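Troubleshooting: if your tokenizer reports a length mismatch, compare your output against this known-good record of 262 residues.
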Amino acid sequence: MIQHSLVKNSLCSFLGLFVFLAAINARAYTPEDCVRCHKEGSRESMLHVSMGEFEASIHGRETTCQDCHTDIRDESHETVKGSGAVDCSMCHDQENRHGMQSKTEHRPRCYSCHTAHAIFEINSKLSSVHRENLNKTCGTCHPAECGDSDYLSWFPSKQIASHNKQDFGSPFEEDNCLGCHQGMAAHGEEAPINEETCYQCHFSPEGEPLLVGYMHPKAHPDKHPTIFASAIIYLFVILAVFYGGFTFYTRKFSGKSRRHRR
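Known-good structure output:
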């Protein structure tokens, strides 16, 4: 009887300890746990977040880590690939339609433009989509259109300067990408996201550009043969000038050297 009681008590103690340890391991993460591992300078993770930027951002004031990273609950996320993925459509109605001509898996994500953790109001100069930062943000994927020329596209002009034909006080400048690229271009919507509606006049219902020529010409042999040919001709002209100058001075100094020897 006594032996049976000891075995029963030992079994209950073991089961209690097992349940206690399991409960500790299954404990849901808190925001403090996330910060401890992912703050800048932490050695517990390779993925670091600037807590200063995040806390000052829109999300830092209104949400916690788990509000966005819904699949991260415990240590299992360290071995489950993709568990930290974020679905912005849980709170934002905007669908990921940027780059409709590309496959869904190749399209930019929300954080590609708005960043992952430093999201500020559009009027804040800290925002990646503030007018003063658009050229840099958009240039990440569209370098040639934002002025970062390649081998041949430096030849054609990329100056973007125009105005609303009904309002000469609304300039469209090359640094203000969203001044023209809004609606279908910015988010893939059919309706504009602000009061500037240039796409209504300059794009067809199918989204084809109606302007004569190209606003961002690039020397592509298939799409822009004239620009490509002009760039090639201009390049040959430059090479010819250098070659002519080199030949002229070579002969000149060579002639002086011969006269000096005589």
